[in-house]
Amino acid sequence: MSSSFSLPPALQALQQRLQHTFADPALLQRAITHRSFSAEHNERLEFLGDSVLNLAVSDLLFDQYDDSPEGDLTRIRAHLVRQDMLHRIALSLGIPAMLRLSEGEARGGGAQRPSILADAVEAIIGAVYLTGGFAEAKALVHRLFADVDLKRQATVSARDAKTALQ
Question: How many CB atoms lie within 10 A of CB 1?
């Protein structure tokens, strides 16, 4: 895919919701492409985006919880970057409607599958990192988590850890 690639209207709208203009718009299209659709799929971007997401969320928590011990921060981060949370973010961005899936995967409900949607969010974060660097990717992650009540997530993750121990 070349950098002269032009985004379809749905992806232009997604780019606006992300508040990031892709220097290489083909990367955004690749980020929403499942491996069932094409050899040019999102798995490598997902791999990269997963690490960027973890670092950006760690940075966010480090700033928000300056007196919390490492174990608490680790639990909160794990709660924030899990599939369920990324699935919700994907739904809020409207990603199911624009996922590129094979016909079989689409008929099987792939556009609603939480794992596929979470992977697409990670791939988008990876694509932003490649086109805009860590500062842009971190800013995106902070925007994506802006509506998440971090205090509540901290309480939920602490309760979950205690429940698991008991």
Answer: 12
Strand partners, 129: none
Q: How far apart are the first and last CA of the chain?
A: 52
66-83: pLDDT as tens digits? 888 999 899 999 999 999
CA nearest to 126, candidates 36, 38, 2, 18: 18
Tens-place pLDDT, residues 20-58: 999 888 999 999 999 999 999 999 999 999 999 999 999
Rounded to whole angstroms, the Cα distance separating 73 from 29 reads 33
Quick one: angle between helices 150-165 and 70-80, nearest 10?
100
70 given a catalytic annotation: no
Q: Which of 46, 105, 119, 122 is catalytic?
A: 122
Is position 122 annotated as part of the catalytic site? yes
Is the distance from CB of 12 to CB of 75 less than 8 angstroms?
A: no
Q: Which of 46, 50, 105, 119 is catalytic?
A: 50
